[in-house]
Write a sequence for this structure.
């Protein structure tokens, strides 16, 4: 059976936590294992989440959260223009080691992009500087880095994490043409 992407259900949550544990063991994502991983996978503002399923195994996950435009970092607001409504954010994107190399992460990004477009909301995300594979994925997919800043939480090295802020391919304001 070929892998499929579908909306996450409450019945999927246990399998998502198991998949996240596999990712955490191999990549240390998230850096600190949450006390309630099911709740961590269901953050405040979550609009919808999707899973990649191979057979009966969840091998990938992504969420679309809705942010209040007033809470955005200033560089994101400048990059997308001052939004008049909510902004979408990619959240909790991961693919298990056994699911990698098949384009699942790219397909998950596409699913979120399609949903955000249908809702008429621009997309943003942030990623830690030590997420090299994720950064490569986002940049290959056309995301544009607009700012970087130190986070309040610590990375695996015990330092304040360096976060990079990105705007989605359809969210970036076009540069002004000089005449």
């Amino acid at each position: 059976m070929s892998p499929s992407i579908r909306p996450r259900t409450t019945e999927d949550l246990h399998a998502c936590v198991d998949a996240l544990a596999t990712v955490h063991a191999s990549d240390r994502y998230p850096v600190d294992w949450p006390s309630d991983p099911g709740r961590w996978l269901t953050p405040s503002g979550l609009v919808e989440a999707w899973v990649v399923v191979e057979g009966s195994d969840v091998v990938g996950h992504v969420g679309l959260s809705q942010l209040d435009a007033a809470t955005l970092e200033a560089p994101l607001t400048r990059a997308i223009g001052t939004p008049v409504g909510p902004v979408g954010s990619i959240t909790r994107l991961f693919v298990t080691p056994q699911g990698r190399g098949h384009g699942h992460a790219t397909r998950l990004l596409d699913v979120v992009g399609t949903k955000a477009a249908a809702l008429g909301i621009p997309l943003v995300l942030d990623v830690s500087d030590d997420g090299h594979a994720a950064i490569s994925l986002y940049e290959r997919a056309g995301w544009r880095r607009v700012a970087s800043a130190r986070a309040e939480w610590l990375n695996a090295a015990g330092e304040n994490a360096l976060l990079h802020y990105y705007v989605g391919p359809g969210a970036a304001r076009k540069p002004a043409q000089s005449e």
The two ends are 55 Å apart (CA to CA).
